[in-house]
Design brief:
By secondary structure, the chain is mainly beta. The chain has four helices and 29 strands. The strands form six sheets. A six-stranded mixed β-sheet has the order 10-9-12-17-14-15. The chain has a five-stranded mixed β-sheet with strand order 11-19-18-13-16, with no helix packed on it. Bound molecules: CU-O-CU linkage (C2O) and copper (II) ion (2 copies).
Amino acid sequence: MKRREFLLGSSAAAGAIGVGGFGLASAAPELVIQSASFTLRDQVTTGMVSLSSDAPPPVLRGRQGEAMRLPVRNSTLDYTAMHWHGLRIPNAMDGVPYLTQMPIGPNELFDYEFTPPDAGTYWYHPHCMTMEQMAYGLTGVMVISEAEDPGFDSEQVINLRDFRLDDEDQFLPAYTQRGAARAGTFGNLQTANWLDTPVYDHVSGGLVRLRVVNTDTTRIYRLHLAGGKTRIIAWDGHPVDVELPLPSAEDPLLVGPGQRVDFAVAMPSGKGQMVDLVAKLPGQPHRPMARLRAVGADVARDLQELKPLPPNPVARPDLTKAELHEFVFGWTPEGGEPNNGFCGSLGYNFWSINRTPWAGDAAEGGGPLAVLEMGKSYVLRLRNESPNLHPIHLHGLVFTPLKSNLRKLPPLLTDTMLLLKDEVVEIALVADNPGDWAFHCHVIEHQKTGLTGYIRVV
Ligand code: C2O
Ligand code: CU
Ligand code: CU
């Protein structure tokens, strides 16, 4: 049977392939990074990387304020390190090779232990051999639930990502030099949870929490929902406390690599009716990436029944006292090869922050881009002087976009700012988590060819 004809059964199975409860510190099973095979299209694709031999990386679940233990074992022949994107956890658990830990060698284990301070939709991916391991599959969703149940009937997690396959459904090279120097190299097969337009059943008239995560290495997804009543309730993990316009076919929502959006969806009342997560891909008609199908007797819930999600405990910056730091993202005149030690290199630099390309994960003597003082407020001015878009991601801290030279920005809390062509954005934050925090573009080819640095909080 072809994947595109394959309908998944119950909603319980759907968002939760291989899910384990990792809340109990004592009973945490090992997460084993290993090679995998999966039928992404028509034939079995081999040489994938996942946490099991024949399935996508599972949704990992934790609870706000509760300790988690995630023992990561490396059973590949390459080095690795696991990063928990968006979580404000201690620096030593952040998973950045040479900056916060040594790379995890073949057969080695690293015990990640932390207590997530924030609820919301997060994700995980390697930060060493990043290009290869992510492109070949190792990008998973992490759900941190609120201390109190917000009252949905069901949940649906959608992990959007592309794969770059040849005619035999085997991997093409994950990047090209041409792509790395421009917008990045795009995949040619778009998937949701590694499937081609999966259909997930949810109860008719029920309230679904739809968590959409773009874990692709390159693509900025342009999304909207069709059918059903919906509302955006969280962005990049954090509840939104402003009314955001609903994306539409004409005015879709831009979700860059690394970014997440949570929708509240009221399912249609009629059996078999669909709510589609629709993407606009260049040169193609709109296409559903995943479909929610109404099943069973109508429970007739209403979006109005949902209380707003409780805010996460993020400190708000004091703009009257905030010091300004400037960052320029652009090309680099120098084309040297970064020294990434055991963590893989694309072989050249094209990109830079403040005109300096990242010397490499393992390079000695590269200082921080900025040193921030614990507890103080800062404004960071991010200037994109290139024609390409860059999802700029900061580890360990959460920030608020203040203003842009091109558009009105809602005051959301986020860890990843998508910079448009020639855009200058100011963001504000409180430096309240000590350590060296990676700061880079989440188009992995840009990250790996110079558009990386780190910010130190002392
Ligand atoms: Cu999601 Cu440094 O990355
Ligand atoms: Cu991150
Ligand atoms: Cu970039």
